[in-house]
Amino acid sequence: MTDWILFIPELYTLAAAGVFFFFCLGRARPGRDYAAAMVLSAAGLVLTVCSAGFEGLIFEGVYRVDLYSQVFKVLIYSGFFLVVCLCADLSGVDETRHSEFYLLLCLCTLAMMLLASSVHLLTLYISLEISSYSLYVLVYLRRGSSQRVKPAFQYFVMGAAASAVMLFGFALVYGAFGSAHMAELMHQVPARIHEPLVFTGFVLSLSGFFFKLAVFPFHFWAPDAYEAAPHQVSAYIATASKVAAIAILVRMIALTGGQGDRVAWVLIFVSVASMTAGNLAALIQKDIKRLLAFSSVAHAGYVMIGILSANAMGYAGAVFYGLSLMVMKFVCFMVVVKASDGGRNIDTEALAGLHHRAPVLALALLLALFGLAGIPPTIGFTAKLLVFRAAMDQGLLWLVIVAMFNVVISLYYYLLVLKAAYYTESEGRPREVALSVPLKCLAGAMIFLMVAGGLWPGYMIVLAESMTAGLLP
Amino acid sequence: MLFQPVPEISLYLAWTAAVVPLAAFGAILVFFRRLPKTAAAISVAAAAVSLICAVCLLVRHWNMDAPLQSAVTWMASGEFEIAVGVLLDPLSLVMLVIVASIAFLVQVYSLGYMAGDAGYGRYFGFMSLFSWAMFGLVLAPNIVQVFIFWELVGLSSYLLIGFWFEKFSATRAGKKAFIMTRAGDTLFFWGWLILLVWGGTLSILELNSGAHGLSSAMTTAAALLVFGGIMGKSAQFPLMTWLPDAMEGPTPVSALLHSATMVAAGVFLMARLFGFFSQSDLAMAAAMAVGTLSMLLSATMAMVSRDIKQVWAYSTISQLGFMIMALAAGGYAAGIFHLTTHAGFKALLFLCAGVLIHAHETNDMFELGRAGARRMKAAMVCMTAGALALAGIWPFSGFFSKEAVMGALAGADNRLWLFCGLAGVFLTAHYTFRLIFIILFPRTEAAGGPGARHGSVSANAVMYAVLGLLTVFTLAAGFFAQGFEDFIRIHGGHAQEGHLASLAHIASPVLAVAGIVAAWMQFGSNASDQVGFAEKIGPVGRLFARRWYLDHVYAWITGRLLDRGIAEGCRRFENKVIEGALTMITGGVVFFGRMAAGWQRAMIQPKLMAAFAVMFGLILILLVV
């Protein structure tokens, strides 16, 4: 019998999506849509937090509710809520499309929540597809831009190709074991991972998640999609979507039980390739959103270091990294949304004199960029420390050194952004960056979170460790 | 067991003595900088509290039989822990009382001396900082705490020497003091790193008792490096020239700096680590040589200087040299006793000089004499008492401590040190009374009373009271020599009395009197021309006046060797090699960045092909390997 109580947060999100569906049918009223989205997402966040203690298996064992999935749902929902907070000025999307925008955002969130709980290859595939389809459309929702078609289409084709490869991999895995239940795979995969069939199937099935996390070689969509999408959608892809991808990738790699040396080598390769490619390409970007996209690619590489270590600290580090990425990237996009005029893209120079125009925002940006570069005492430093420690424990010192070189390269472009915000004075009369009181509080909370994550990360690390404890053999 | 825990009440007393000045400093700088009266009251009150605590501690522990120590962990890194705490033994108790009393007296004196100065509040704030730093240093149970407060002492001296920062020479003197002592501190830093890394302990008691893992060569190296710090702080050769320049600060600051705090810190550290230094004969010999050289060089410099404060400054270096000689000869009690008596009479001399300078607004002794300084009877009597102590004449305190030092030197293996010391006694008496006679017996004298020329603030009764107290101390302290020695010599070495001791004890006062007589013949009697024998021989006089060209050597070293040699070479290397390499590297990185970003311009087909190729290629390669 299915315990529907465990499924309440998902049902609630589905209902919220239904509300927006009805809004779509009527006349466009952006104000109403925004208010509804705020209320619904806040209530949903409270609901997911309340359901964090749930535990159980439902739907014939294909859907697992445990601490791991529930905390990730809280994170995904926080990402959703934070992005909605940025939607007060949704000028990047046509006004008649606002309810569709929220509808798709809701659906995407729902799909990601399903993704975090999926323990069957089929549920996993379906939820991944739902979330991706919502995003394909969301990227296309940008108002007026004639450039939106190509990136959105590329995003779609890339995603479809990755899905196809993943499905092929799933088929091979199923063919080898005769089962698609992760619980059963977990027992059998570690012993047989060295068989060519299993290895090929396993690696190919990772492609879909690589695509989701924008890991090399499935990262090509990221810069164009980030650039073309409305700011809020880019923010959503960079925060909630990445967290969900980390959640499922950790679950998949945990299947190998730390036995897959060859799998580890694949991961090492893509990790090094994505951080190097991401950091190098970010060096010469002018558009902040493109820069953040490449930085996302690089950070996906760092996360992979934690995942491929396949030990307790590595998994916990990857989860912690997901949290830190969400906070820091969100702050960056908050700056982009606030500093841009009418939803247009901005260059780094547009941030000139930000510390005069919006001191709180500039401070938050400073901490976020320091965190992304891994400078203590910020949350990003703790996250990097955890994943690097995990790799060192596995004897991968050289990988850590490569990653440190990458960190140095990344420092350059992060500091360029900071230089614009703090040292360059804007020419003429720049646009006022008006921050409403709630947003100021939000920025303050983010500042607190970033510093607290650097100085007192103990509680969060313990949480991440207890979350991932069940994944280890 | 090296020590016993400090009883609770003593612990509170020690912490109070140390922390109250810090609180005063904070309160003054934050709240009362613009309220001079309040600031001064707070600072003096804090000094009084410290003094009371220090005296209580001394009385409570007069009969202690083992050192007392308490410490709490301040920070821990791996197995290494840094503790802060207090170490109470005769040395720290005596030093605590000296520092507290001199700091208190100098601050009381400053109430009058600094009256009307624009930076009155700031002055007292820094004074409190200075006291705090010195208390922390004195009470420190380990080298890290010593080093921290050692640097704080340096910092507060810098702030006070450069107190009148609108004067260019004052800022330059402050900088010079700071940088030259830093040169020594760097050596000290290396020294305690050796102790930490190879010795495994920084606890003073463990180091002194030999409970460290250092080989004898390492012990010598560490001791020599630590002694480098002492050379900087106590202005010993060759890091000595900052001290005369430090006269740019207000005179009470000089009094404090020269008697109980800054320069005394160096000798104090040597006494603090006496047991450790004793483990290395080479380090002791080096200390002896440095002390002797500094003592003689600075005595000669004092013979030709015309600036009253500078003469006292040179004499400080010289007396510090005596203390280091005594310690290096194994005379632990003698060295510390000389430090104690010197603190008293040097403070007295500086404060008297301050009264004269204040009244006549000149530092030049000849001008002071001509202006009629001798008519300021009280100040002149006090100063003469101080000078007699400095020269080592019975019954002043300097006589007893100098006898003790000579006794210690007589016990040294090499007789050379004793003879150098005796020569130093003669020179000391000579230059001291040169100054006194020049002021007392001017050749021509201007009309008018003291202070008549200027509207400057004349010394008030409180200042004279301070002078009186110090004079009484100078007169009386010598008679407690035996008690002092018994108290201090609990764990220190015992200076063996050699067969030369009796000779030294007789020769020293005789030479002192001879020095005074020589000074009388050249500067005092009516027939004299008031030109010293050193000045009569041109080259020698110039050599002394130019401080043995030490400053020129420094200028050459810093200007030629450091600036134009090493720094210039490094700059060229930096410009040509490092920058060139960097340009290449950054250029390469940006080039690869363009390549990586260039991929994005491709159509979707090659991107997809690349993705598939990578995935399947990886699988193939790994399956084959």
Put the structure in a nutshell:
The complex is a heterodimer of chains A (473) and B (625). Chain A is mainly α and 473 residues long.
Describe the structure.
The complex is a heterodimer of chains A (473) and B (625). Chain A has 473 residues and is mainly alpha-helical. Chain A has one domain (4-471). Chain A has 20 helices and 2 strands. Chain A has a two-stranded antiparallel ribbon. Chain B is mainly alpha-helical. Among the domains of chain B are: 280-545, no CATH class; 553-624. Chain B is 74% helix and 3% strand. Chain B has helices at 8-30, 36-60, 90-113, 120-139, 143-161, 168-199, 204-208, 216-233, 242-245, 251-259, 262-272, 274-278, 281-304, 308-328, 332-360, 365-370, 377-391, 397-410, 415-440, 461-476, 481-488, 501-524, 533-536, 538-545, 550-598, 604-624, and strands at residues 68-77, 80-88. In chain B, helix 4 (120-139) packs antiparallel against helix 5, helix 8 (216-233) runs parallel beside helix 13 and helix 13 runs parallel beside helix 19. The chains are: A mainly alpha (473), B mainly alpha (625). Chain A binds chain B through residues 153-154, 157-158, 161-162, 165, 196, 199-200, 203-204, 207, 216-218, 220, 223-224, 262, 265-266, 269-270, 273, 276-277, 280-285, 294, 409, and chain B through 589-590, 592-597, 599-600, 604, 607-608, 610-612, 614-615, 618-619, 622-623.
